[in-house]
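explain this:

___
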Amino acid sequence: MLFSCKISHSVLTYLDRQGADLGALLEACEYPAEFLRDPLHWLEAEKMEDLLALFVRECNRLSREGNLIQEAGHHCKELRAWGVLDSVLRMVQSPKDLFSQPDRLLSYFVSPAPPVGNILREPEGVFFEVPIAASQYPLVTEYLRSAMEALPTYAGKPMASAQWTEIRVGINWIERQESLFGADVGQEPHLNPELVRGILHNLETAQKQLEETKRSLAERERELKLLRNGAAPSPRVDQVSAQESSQESTVRWMGLAEGLKAEISEPARDVLNHIYRLNDYMVRAQQLVTLLVGQGRQTPQVQEAMRRVDWALVQSESPNVVKSAAAGVRKIQDVLKDLSLLAVDRGARVDDGQERKVPTNLNAVVTRAVEGVKGDAPRRVQIDQHLLLDRDVPAHAKPIERALANIIRNAVQAIEGQGTVRVVTRPNGSRAEIEITDSGIGMSDATTRRAFEPFFTTQTPGTAAGLGLSLAQAIVRGHDGAISVRSQPGGGTTIVVSLPFGAPSTPT
């Protein structure tokens, strides 16, 4: 079972708004802030419970008063930590609609969606059973209970009252209060209900598909982790047996890579299409609102409705949300392309669209790779270039740029605190060399031997695919080149890429 990082994002956002020292808090945590603040990410149930317990302990250590988990749940509306779900909830006008399908509501926070049984519905209440015991996950269930109490505030109603006793959940609310469009008797809403339902449906569909992709990737990451753990040869077998084990492991991960590509490629493409379609719907809605306002139809009721749904924020943030979501899906597609290249043959020759290799200025390629990495690199890391090559190299520029960017990015990520990455190009006899050196934490001999192994990573599981260096190696070998690594713990790492000078080769 997985719990959504909407929960961790809510708690962190609440602490941030309370002026808490998140730096000290996150130092005690094994997960990066970017992972915990992504409402589309998921964390294993026990790990989420342990994470919330860590947050509570750290707050108690800092002598902070109050029930942290309950407060974060109660402030969910103003925290805006639930991504698209926040927008969906703001369009619902009745607590009864919010709680009418508890299984659907819980599916936003629990995966797979837990079965809900023994449902009893009343005019202003709902009671049901769910196989998530409060005694087993006391902090997660406390957050969900508190958040459910706060859900009616999205519809402008008072908070509900919720109890979660073992597997039994009960929620009571109050329906009476002015509607979204004011308290005028007989005043009908100006929004077409079909339009509202259509927008809600599209928002929820896009959200669900994005989350399903994230869940699928998380499950595959766990499979890959098990595979990596089982791929290491036993120290008690002889060299021949170890080689056979390595070959068998290679066949296994190649098959898994092909399976991942086949299973995720089409859903990822569909999600991207839905994102762009949703953006088109949003643009049309903005045009419709602008037209109506321009015709003098911005009545006090419409003004109040626009304020309630925070229309100004929706207008300004929706393009950024679409851009970010599309970039995330394209990153998934890039990883699938990497898997495809590696699964075919780790030593395959690079063929960039059946084009011939052409004389390529590696200095320019290095500069582009560095610029691409700098955009995401922290300011504390400096990247220096010393470009000493004096002639071109037969190559496919884009794959080489991608390989170098992967290596440089790894170098940046290996630096804790202030540090430098130095990139040098130089001729060395009949070959061109690109040397990338970082002042990072370095690697042990055991880690160095596995540096180019597909799916191997020293970063937190779920934050890196472990394909960067293995893909770089495949690209370099496809250019008849070589790649080597030198490293020691605490002494940084140096990776040297060597490519031959010579006549451009024919297509492979």
Notes: Residues 2-82+92-172 form a domain with the H-NOX domain fold (CATH 3.90.1520.10). The chain is about 50% helix and 15% strand. Residues 177-193, 231-246, 345-354, 504-508 have pLDDT under 50 and may be disordered. Residues 403 and 472 are 4 Å apart (CA to CA).
